[in-house]
Design brief:
Elements (H helix, E strand, L loop, with lengths): L5 H14 L13 E6 L11 H19 L3 E3 L3 E2 L4 H10 L3 H18 L10 E2 L3 H16 E4 L2 E4 L11 E11 L4 E3 L4 E2 L2 E2 L7 E10 L5 H6 L8 H11 L1 E13 L2 E12 L10 E4 L4 H6 L6 H13 L2 H6 L6 E10 L6 E7 L10 E4 L5 H9 L5 H8 L26 H14 L3 E7 L4 E2 L12 E4 L3 E4 L29 H4 E3 L6 E4 L13 H4 L3 H7 L7 H4 L1 H7 L4 E5 L5 H15 L12 E4 L2 E2 L16 H8 L1 H10 L7 E2 L2 H16 L4 E2 L5 H19 L3 H18 L2 E2 H14 L1 H10 L24 E7 L2 E8 L5 H10 L4 H4 L4 E7 L3 E6 L1
Parallel strand pairs: 1-2, 1-24, 3-4, 14-16, 24-25, 26-27, 28-29, 30-33
Antiparallel strand pairs: 5-6, 7-8, 7-11, 9-10, 11-19, 12-13, 12-15, 12-18, 14-17, 15-16, 20-21, 20-23, 22-23, 30-31, 32-33
The structure holds one RNA strand of 86 nucleotides.
RNA sequence: GCCCGGGUGGUGAAAUGGUAUACACGUUAGCCUUAGGAGCUAAUGCGGGAAACCGCGUGGAGGUUCAAGUCCUCUCCCGGGCACCA
């Protein structure tokens, strides 16, 4: 027997798979389809990370099983290639981002192929490819051309400026780095500081493109009940959307000389039942009413100063110092509590957020911790009066925020909190001073970036016609070649400096006009790539010629492939990417271009591979494991199998050199064990273990319990060694199981054993339940719950016999002497449990 | 503060309420070898004992059950997410 020469074997089979199109899926088939999606990588300059290998190894194993089980499996790969690191690299090294991307992609493909992953290379996509981003732009235009009214999509005319389009422009506070003089994406702000230079980022108001994801908030919540995601993912998404149901309440505003007409304060509350306890009203510093009240406010100077102080605070300061609430009372003006006509004070305080609800709240210190704290600090209501009101329910140091029954609330007293909310809101509604209202924490999605390396937003600004979408048959709007990728000083995209690109003519009136110079965020291309795989050949072949819409033209493909059956990815994408891409898919479904409302039927998350020191891998810590080096030392099969064996799939695991060494030993022993293949009939012990392994490995692969898949294969190999012989038929089953984790060695051994055809075109082994039962089974005898003996019996021995055999056992006699037998429980094939007194 | 995970040998970890510690690493002893960071065999939860065996053991305290790592109540610790969201 030759040595296990993994280098030679792996090269041979990788070529074979390439030559025979292993992994290439058909667009039509009489087999059932299975769409297995993994998050496509950002092709960074540092190449494949072992974390990628962990996800690829596990999903590749699963895909191989599904193929053997007779599915037409789509297991595609592509490149999420727009993004800042490439742009920064381009700036630094004076290399075109297009060139850098192509080089990185080449490296990724080489690495992936060298590990034998069975991706469908015919479907490769790249978000930076104009054939691809043509359709990213097309989808953007559909957002621009549509609005969601009453849950239904409606088309919006080009000159309509009032209907709320799903893509719109708005003045938005953005993160501004005063040192780099650029606008930062949220992802570039780490703990309130610029990722590049560490300077604290400031808020700056600028016109931004927005996607109205909030219009889809309810659909995004409701859709979760139809998909198979871990509970953790669902709750995280629901929390992120943050739906809260409550009441909007209108307080009239009164000055020294009576009611100030036309001015009112609208607050949002989830606790309308506590309205009688309202002692003051608070406005966010950014609330427009504050400046409007102007001369009515006696201490307006003090108030203005407070507001400008707030503006100077960074996000970090405003949130980190949350315990220390600040604010200013507006002297000379009052708000009228609409339920009882009571005058209450008005404050401005930055613990109230302009961006949530109405930017104003009613304060009920007795029933809200934040109001309580603020009231205590500014002596607004005495603690004594709160306790009086609450009939001693309240302890002196905190608000009573639980539900209960209303007191001191006129005709509403005695109602439960939930009854009270409803009754009070109904009364306000009748007086036209309030109504039921829903709010979301979710904000609309800031969809523009002032960078070069992204999809250009296909809009033209015309002085006469306003914003005009580029006609769809003129897409894609491609990125121009530029010399300089640096953002400009005033926070504009580098595209703004390319005059001959910016200057264009209006598609409507033909006048001189300017192109939009912002680009899309790198979440854009990844929000529909799972759809693109199904039609990827069409993107390449017809992308430029297509005049209609590629989705409608290829409805049959989308109907066949969608939705994704299994989506595999990282925990870091549970909120943003998963939410964004669900949003796009639901929108496209509403538009009628994709068949299913939800894009992913099932989602599985993987953990992170940590360095050998248990720390997150990083160059600076020097604990980075390079997959190329590992594959060179131990082979692709060992690396793949170890990546599955390293620990529970959805849990973080630390790399271990001893661990990969152990897996290598396993494969080398498997290699040698081909000598145990014989013409002799299999022992019952081997048949039992083999069938247990088929059953267990199948179940574990389906559940992505990859570590036990490997341990079960090891157990079977141990049994082969122990028994010393295995029939060719049984061996072929073992190899097919092994094929999913270590496909190269399994293919080679298949050939060496002289088995027919190729292992990959066979079928998944079936369990023969005749062999699942052992000849003899150990049945445990328990006395008072403790194991005191064992009897070896044949399976299905009747209860009565088991009981007799148990009492006949010498082992247990000492425990029965002089004891009264209270109870006997017999579980066939398991145990006899005797209770004595 | 709120919402998720998770605490099991020396280590990574297994266990449809039914023999806790499979599998792997490590360790120890022996074999083989010129040699081994190679291979093979055996042992390996802790305490006691020459052994048979006994006692104790899944973060802690209770509970349900003939039987609990697993179910229930309370509690401690670790990791992650959200966080002044009214």
């Amino acid at each position: 027997m030759k040595d296990y020469n993994f280098k030679e074997i792996e090269k041979k089979w990788q070529k074979y798979w390439e030559d025979t199109n292993y992994g290439i899926s058909a667009d039509s088939s009489n087999k059932p389809k299975f769409y297995s999606l993994i998050e496509f990588p950002y092709p960074s300059g540092s190449g494949l990370h072992v974390g990628h290998c962990m996800m690829y190894s596990a999903t590749d194993a699963h895909a191989r099983m599904m193929r053997l089980k007779g599915y037409n499996v789509m297991f595609p790969m592509g490149w999420d290639a727009f993004g800042l690191p490439t742009e920064n690299y381009a700036i630094k090294n004076k290399i075109k981002p297009q060139v850098a991307t192509a080089k990185n992609v080449e490296t990724f493909i080489r690495q992936q192929k060298s590990l034998g992953y069975s991706f469908d290379w015919n479907r490769e996509i790249n978000t930076t490819d104009p054939d691809y981003y043509k359709w990213t732009q097309w989808i953007f235009l559909q957002f621009y051309k549509h609005a969601l009214i009453g849950g239904k999509l409606v088309e919006v005319d080009d000159d309509d400026t009032t209907t709320p389009r799903l893509a719109y422009r708005a003045e938005m506070p953005v993160n501004w780095c005063p040192s780099c003089k650029i606008i930062l994406a949220n992802e570039e702000v780490i703990n309130g500081k610029c990722e590049r230079c560490g300077t604290g980022s400031l808020k700056r108001v600028q016109k931004q493109w927005m996607l109205r994801i909030t219009a889809y908030a309810d659909k995004l919540i409701d859709g979760l009940s139809t998909v198979d995601y871990e509970e953790k993912i669902k709750t995280q998404q629901i929390n992120w959307i943050g739906k809260s149901v409550g009441t909007n309440i209108i307080f009239d505003v009164k000055g020294r000389s009576g009611t100030i007409h036309d001015e009112e304060i609208e607050v949002f509350t989830t606790r309308a039942d506590t309205l009688y306890g309202c002692t003051y009203v608070v406005l966010a510093p950014e609330h427009p009413l504050v400046t409007k009240l102007g001369h009515h406010v006696q201490n307006f100077e003090e108030v203005s100063e407070y507001i400008s102080e707030t503006k100077k605070k960074s996000d970090l300061e405003r949130t980190e110092l949350q315990k220390d609430k600040t604010g200013v009372k507006l002297y000379g003006v009052f708000a009228i509590n609409p339920i009882n006509g009571q005058e209450v004070d008005i404050y401005v305080a930055d613990y109230v957020l302009a961006s949530y609800g109405t930017g104003a709240v009613m304060a009920v210190p007795a029933h809200d911790d934040r109001d309580f704290e603020f009231a205590k600090k500014y002596g607004i209501s005495t603690v004594q009066s709160i306790t009086d009101k609450l009939d001693n329910i309240l302890t002196l140091d905190k608000a009573y925020t639980d539900y209960g029954f209303l007191i001191d609330s006129a005709e509403f007293s005695g109602l439960s909190s939930s009854e009270g909310k409803k009754a009070i809101t109904e009364k306000l509604k009748a007086k036209r001073l309030g109504d039921f209202a829903v709010n979301y924490k979710l904000r609309d999605w800031i969809f523009s970036r002032q960078h070069y390396w992204g999809e250009p937003i296909p809009i033209i600004h015309c002085d006469k016609c306003g914003m005009v979408p580029i006609p769809e048959d003129q897409l894609p709007l491609t990125l121009p070649d530029v010399e300089n990728y640096e953002p400009t000083d005033d926070g504009q995209s580098p595209l703004a400096a390319i005059t001959d690109w910016v200057e264009t003519t209006c598609p409507v009136c033909g006048c001189k006009a300017r192109r939009e110079t912002d680009t899309m965020p790198n979440w854009a291309g990844s929000s529909w790539y799972f759809i693109a795989y199904a039609i990827s050949q069409k993107l390449k072949v017809e992308g430029q010629k297509q005049s209609g819409n590629i989705f409608d033209d290829n409805k049959d493909l989308l109907d066949y492939w969608m939705p994704v059956d299994l989506y595999n990815g990282g925990n870091e994408h549970i909120t943003l990417h998963l939410l964004y891409s669900r949003f796009w898919n639901i929108f496209l479904h509403d538009l009628g271009v994709v068949p299913s409302s939800e894009p992913y039927a099932k989602r599985i998350n993987h953990g992170i591979i940590l360095g050998p020191d248990g720390q997150k891998m990083s160059k600076s810590k020097g604990n980075v494991i390079n997959p190329d080096e590992m594959a060179a030392q131990y082979g692709a099969d060992t690396l793949r199998t170890y990546m599955m064996f390293i620990g529970p799939y959805n849990q973080d695991s630390a790399w271990s050199m001893a661990g990969i060494q152990g897996v290598f030993r396993f494969l080398r022993r498997v290699w040698g064990n081909i000598e145990k293949v014989s013409g002799v009939a299999d022992s019952k012990e081997l048949l039992l273990k083999l069938n247990q392994t088929i059953l267990g490995v199948t179940e574990d692969l389906e559940k992505f319990q990859m570590n036990t898949v490997v341990s079960k294969l090891m157990e079977l190999n141990n049994t082969i060694e122990k028994v010393g012989a295995i029939s060719l038929e049984s061996y072929s089953k073992f190899l097919r199981l092994l094929f999913v984790t270590a496909p190269h060695i399994a293919s080679e051994l298949w050939e060496l054993a002289g088995l027919d055809g190729n292992i990959g075109s066979g079928s998944w082994p079936e369990v023969d339940s005749r062999y699942l039962v052992a000849d003899q089974i150990d049945v445990v005898i328990q006395i008072n719950g403790k194991v005191r003996g064992k009897i070896s019996v044949s399976p299905n021995t009747p209860k009565e016999s088991l009981e007799k055999l148990a009492f006949a056992s010498d082992k247990i006699q000492p425990y029965l002497n002089d004891k009264e037998i209270v109870k006997i429980i017999v579980i066939p094939d398991k145990l006899v449990s005797i209770v004595v007194k």
